[in-house]
Amino acid sequence: MPALLPRPSILSIEPYVGGESKIPGVNRIVKLSSNEGAFGVPPAAQAAYATLAAELHRYPDGHATALREAIGARFGLDPARIVCGNGSDEIIQHIILAYGGEGTELVMSAHGFVMYEVSGRYAGCQVIKVPERNLTADVDAMLAAVGPRTRLMFLANPNNPTGSMLPAAEVARLRAGLREDVLLVLDSAYAEYVTRPDYDPGTALVEAGTNTVMTRTFSKVFGLGGIRLGWCYAPPHVIDILNRVRGPFNVNAPAMVAGIGALAEPGWVETSVAHNDAWRARLSDGLRAAGITVHPSEGNFILADFGTAERAKAADAALKARGLIVRMMHSYDLPQALRITIGTAEDCGMVLDALTAFMRG
Ligand code: PMP
């Protein structure tokens, strides 16, 4: 009897690890491992979510019209060029399955966001990981990696897990150097947290051509990771393709109302970003003063480098002993590093205390 097997490329995918919220034997944990917003769920999102309980027998609006209009109004975008998804992960997967597949190549930077590789292999693409400079995507190397079979290029900007950011001029140079038949996906999941003035989340590049897509999420600054809501802004022909392949009800009804509520919460993004700015700097400086290498970050997390995998593992254990869960970076080929989400002031203080004590050894 022949064995039942999936396509071979699928067997090379490692199951996703992350999101743990328990440490055996520890009662009070602080989860700083998934780059979730520091302030919980926006109250307006919670209130909107709660109103929906008696309506759950109804299918959601398959076009997510009210949500797309709210996103369009907030970001100054045409709602007709927006598609929403079950997290931006879903949109990334649809884009790759629609435009990639067997016989094509997907180009990403060496430490780019992990789901590009997972979905790329799922689709059967050859995934090309391009060496970086100082843990930052290298535009010349990315362009040099493009071959005749390349159909997709992904750039998370800022990138998770490195926190690095490419300036607008570099992103524009990347787009300008690509053929028309290569779709550039700019993943701007952490856009709101960027404070450098030379940043562009990708809106203008989407509008300027026919082959650039920007993806965004409600999981980070908008505090809705649990509800799974993301969206993309894309040229009309890409929107048409995504509307053909996505599930008819891929965004659930509570997600839509919660997303609209989060967008309406007064001052939410401003407060979150000001907090993130202040504590990203304090935590980075404090860890550097303790002797840890911290990469510059434009996201709501930092990458702390302990020099060796053994030291990183020991640092992780020291954090866990105090109930602090951060992310080990084996799956990103950075076993010497830990990624730490910027939490509340108290969370950051606990991380600083624990790692300062660890370094004093
Ligand atoms: N892109 C990047 C760069 C991310 O870090 C994440 C979340 N870890 C995502 C996309 C996916 O976000 P979501 O599916 O929650 O929208």
TrEMBL record:
E.C. no: 2.6.1.9
Gene3D superfamilies xrefs: Aspartate Aminotransferase, domain 1 (3.90.1150.10), Type I PLP-dependent aspartate aminotransferase-like (Major domain) (3.40.640.10)
Catalytic reaction list: L-histidinol phosphate + 2-oxoglutarate = 3-(imidazol-4-yl)-2-oxopropyl phosphate + L-glutamate
UniProt keyword Cell cycle, yes or no: no
Pathway of action: Amino-acid biosynthesis; L-histidine biosynthesis; L-histidine from 5-phospho-alpha-D-ribose 1-diphosphate: step 7/9
Biological process per Gene Ontology, one example term: L-histidine biosynthetic process
Leader sequence segment: none
Sites of N6-(pyridoxal phosphate)lysine modification: 220
SUPFAM superfamilies xrefs: PLP-dependent transferases
Domain of life: Bacteria
Keywords annotated in UniProt: Amino-acid biosynthesis, Aminotransferase, Histidine biosynthesis, Pyridoxal phosphate, Transferase
Annotated transmembrane regions: none
Domain Aminotransferase class I/classII large: 29-355
Cofactors (names): pyridoxal 5'-phosphate
Subunit structure of this chain's protein: Homodimer.
Family: Belongs to the class-II pyridoxal-phosphate-dependent aminotransferase family. Histidinol-phosphate aminotransferase subfamily.
Protein name: Histidinol-phosphate aminotransferase
Lineage of producing organism: Bacteria, Pseudomonadati, Pseudomonadota, Alphaproteobacteria, Acetobacterales
